[in-house]
Specification:
Layout (H helix, E strand, L loop, with lengths): L3 H13 L8 H5 L7 H28 L3 H16 L8 H11 L4 H6 L4 H15 L4 H14 L4 E2 L2 E2 H8 L8 H24 L3 H28 L2 H8 L1
Antiparallel strand pairs: 1-2
Length: 241
């Protein structure tokens, strides 16, 4: 069994070893010479399916948390998701809805959108773990480390949302959902690792947590692959070649 420092290092390596920003979908999304607004809209609506469920994950992680000293961090996380008061913004789903409107999607179109199969697989994997207190460490690893860690990825040193702003001429206030998460999730990932380091008292629990980080990152990649395949971008790339 690893000591706590070694375990945190292993979790960091697992997270950094599966960067989703390398998916070829981002080649199209971040092409300054050929901005694809419709692709951005479609991808965003898949991301919105994730956002709608995030508070439920955090609520259950707070409720089932067996370590009292970590509940305070989860309570702060939950409070910010629900109110936006700590960041002096808004409820985080509302922030996402503001971004959706900013890129030209109506509320009606937003509410009609449904999750593609790979997107639903990611939603369901995390939900099953968070609702099962016997798999609490798996849910915590999937949500607090792997999922919150997605917002820390950069492209050539720049945050993804910053590049989206440049490519699609978006204002800073349009991107608050992403900028708020990028700042806050540094702390959330660290707190998630601290929780898991205290919680995982056996080698089996440590390995299951690492596997959960791995699986969640792969499911995020799979969500982008789902968009890529649904829109036939692989065929388009072959045609260009």
């Amino acid at each position: 069994m690893m000591d706590k420092k070694e375990f945190k290092t292993a979790m960091t390596a697992e997270l950094n070893g599966h960067l989703t920003v390398g998916h070829p979908l981002f080649k199209y999304l971040l092409d300054e010479n050929k901005p694809d607004k419709e692709l951005l809209k479609f991808t965003t609506l898949q991301g919105y399916q994730l956002t709608k469920h995030f508070l439920t994950y955090i609520e259950n992680l707070f409720f089932h948390c067996p370590l009292e000293k970590h509940k305070k961090h989860l309570l702060h996380n939950m409070y910010e998701e629900e109110t936006g008061n700590l960041s002096k913004t808004k409820n985080h789903v509302v922030l996402m809805e503001d971004f959706i409107r900013a890129i030209g999607i109506s509320d009606e179109e937003r509410d009609r959108a449904t999750a593609l199969k790979p997107t639903q697989e990611l939603i369901s994997y995390r939900m099953r773990a968070c609702l099962d207190k016997e798999r609490y460490h798996i849910g915590a690893a999937a949500v607090l480390v792997a999922s919150e860690g997605q917002n820390l990825e950069t492209v050539a040193g720049e945050a993804r949302h910053t590049l989206f702003g440049k490519v699609y001429n978006l204002k800073e206030e349009d991107l608050l959902f992403f900028s708020v998460h990028q700042k806050e999730d540094v702390g959330h990932v660290r707190q998630g690792m601290d929780l898991l380091a205290d919680l995982c008292t056996t080698e089996k629990m440590q390995q299951e947590s690492l596997e959960a980080i791995n699986t969640t990152c792969k499911l995020f990649y799979g969500m982008y692959q789902g968009v890529y395949d649904h829109l036939g971008l692989g065929q388009a790339q072959l045609a260009e070649a």
